[in-house]
Amino acid sequence: MRRQQGMRLDERYVPYLQMAGLYHLARLNDRWFRLDEPLVSAFVERWCPEMHTFHMPFGECTITLQDVAYQLGLPVDGHYVSSCLTDFHVYIQSGRPAWQWRLLESAPRGADEATVRRYACAYIMMLLGTQLFADKLGSRIHIRWLPYVARLEEMGGYSWGSAALAWLYRCMCRVANRHVVNWPMASRWSGYNPGVSEKGPRVQMTRLRIDMLQPKDVSMQKTFAE
Global pTM? Predict the structure, then answer.
């Protein structure tokens, strides 16, 4: 997970983030997280699209819904998330589309509640578009999330954890397919060629570290079923 720079978490957003079920994710975003690209590349090489698992020296493992809930604090119960947006006219504000908001800074001091809410909505759009459901650039936000933000009071009733996990599985399967070259996540998560990339040796070292893993080196959390 990467921190999205340019949009600082304002304490005035907290009630709206809690309402949307994204407060824990926002707290993570407000700290610095670096993406370990060699580690991601090494794990992508071990991804089995047919089973949605990583083939490890000690057996098969995967990312579960419990992991998403525990690590990101996202709700995993509730309505399913659908990304279809058809009623564009509903989201027009003052003669211009609501998705033309350009709110990259915190809400101004002394702003009224309506203004703070608008900035909070922009922050939530940023979280969805560049953190949970990012493309390779990580700087664009799809308007598919606009209906959810427009109904902020209802956002907490959706299973964002399930949607995030499904998106991750989809990304992993796409990038693991060596024939996919134009899909957004492919260029972001594709493996490095040791003969070309300066990060090649780091990928090789990561592969070796994974190859040497033993069952005792892996901490397995109990599942919900247990």
Answer: 0.73
Domain spans in the chain, listed from the N-terminal domain onward:
11-217
- Give the CA-trace dihedral at 114, 119, 120, 125, to 10 degrees: 130
Tokens representing residue 203 in the block: 């990928």
> What confidence tens digit (pLDDT) does each residue in 6-20 have?
567 899 999 999 999
Rg (CA), the chain: 19
Edge-to-edge strands, sheet with 47-48: 47-48, 53-56, 59-61
Range 140-145 average pLDDT:
77
Give the Cα separation of 6 and 141 in Å (integer).
Answer: 14
Residue 147 and residue 11 in contact, taking contact as beta carbons nearer than 8 Å: no
The Cα 190–Cα 18 span in angstroms is 35
CA 215 to chain centre: 29
